[in-house]
């Protein structure tokens, strides 16, 4: 294939029923864990491994938090199968990201992902999916979010009046071909951290819009109440969050009326089609040539600039911080 027709430097984020709802649940329950996961994604190799051993102190330095907070967040990520780890020493670990959520290579390379012999079952589990399904360990917020994100307008309206949720169990990834994924660009990962710190609701709404976008990164016409219902947020939260996303160049809004809008997600952050389509989008919406927080009209966000610098820092140089 012509090199110009290829999208580059992205991570596959699986969206077939559990990927985006899992991230929304992680964001709600442990926002620091979400930010740690974004940092790991920035540094993982083709085997989904953060190849340089890290201490909890190292991670804390990058994200400006205490070691104890990092420890709690890492335990959550391990308990719910977002990551698993290999001990390098008493204080240092290698981290592996669950390939059923994120992956960077061809599906047949999944078998080369490191995992302990007695933990090989992890390769078939998605986040929040347990080896032996048990009502006592199900994450009900995740299952509710998963169902809400999958609903169309008619189903959402029915749910609004009934409040019934019907859980659909995930059947596993039995294919040898990558499919049903959205491209999450590595260059955009540092921007997601300050967004979560400014507004976790805005981040959740962004993930919901990604769920609903077509191959041109555009959603269907949506009302504030529909977004609020799907994201379990009130209208004021939705309105404020959309303003944040617009201000920082995560999305563009196309107004049909005072109450009806469709939203185009910045293709420099998330994308799901071919490189020529992306180039056309960038031509039609030139504000998207800039990453979030980097538009000429944007005010400088010191936290973003600091995160961008720290994310790019070679892992071997972390001890100099």
TrEMBL record:
This is Plasmid replication protein RepL domain-containing protein. InterPro entries: Plasmid_replication_RepL (IPR008813), WH_DNA-bd_sf (IPR036390). GO terms for biological process: DNA replication; plasmid maintenance. It holds the Pfam family RepL. Residues 178-300 form the Plasmid replication protein RepL domain.
């Amino acid at each position: 294939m012509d090199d110009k027709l290829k999208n580059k430097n992205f991570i596959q984020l699986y969206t077939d029923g559990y990927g985006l709802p899992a991230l929304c649940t992680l964001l709600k329950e442990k926002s620091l864990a979400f930010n740690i996961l974004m940092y790991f994604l920035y540094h993982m190799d083709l085997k989904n491994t953060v190849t340089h051993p890290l201490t909890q102190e190292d991670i804390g330095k990058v994200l400006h938090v205490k070691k104890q907070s990092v420890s709690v967040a890492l335990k959550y990520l391990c308990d719910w199968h977002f990551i698993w780890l290999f001990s390098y020493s008493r204080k240092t670990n290698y981290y592996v990201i669950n390939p059923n959520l994120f992956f960077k290579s061809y599906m047949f390379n999944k078998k080369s992902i490191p995992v302990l012999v007695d933990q090989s079952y992890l390769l078939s589990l998605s986040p929040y999916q347990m080896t032996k399904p048990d009502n006592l360990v199900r994450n009900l917020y995740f299952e509710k979010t998963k169902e809400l994100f999958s609903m169309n307008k008619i189903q959402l309206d029915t749910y609004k009046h009934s409040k019934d949720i019907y859980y659909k169990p995930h059947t596993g990834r039995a294919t040898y071909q990558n499919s049903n994924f959205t491209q999450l660009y590595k260059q955009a990962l540092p921007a997601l951290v300050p967004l979560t710190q400014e507004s976790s609701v805005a981040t959740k709404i962004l993930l919901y819009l990604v769920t609903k976008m077509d191959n041109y990164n555009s959603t269907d016409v949506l009302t504030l109440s529909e977004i609020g219902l799907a994201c379990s947020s009130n209208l004021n939260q939705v309105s404020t969050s959309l303003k944040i996303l617009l201000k920082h160049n995560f999305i563009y809004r196309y107004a049909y009326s005072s109450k009806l809008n469709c939203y185009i997600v910045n293709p420099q952050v998330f994308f799901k089609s071919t490189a020529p389509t992306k180039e056309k989008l960038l031509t039609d919406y030139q504000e998207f040539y800039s990453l979030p927080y980097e538009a000429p009209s944007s005010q400088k966000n010191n936290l973003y600039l600091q995160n961008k610098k720290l994310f790019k820092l070679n892992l071997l140089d972390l001890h100099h911080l």
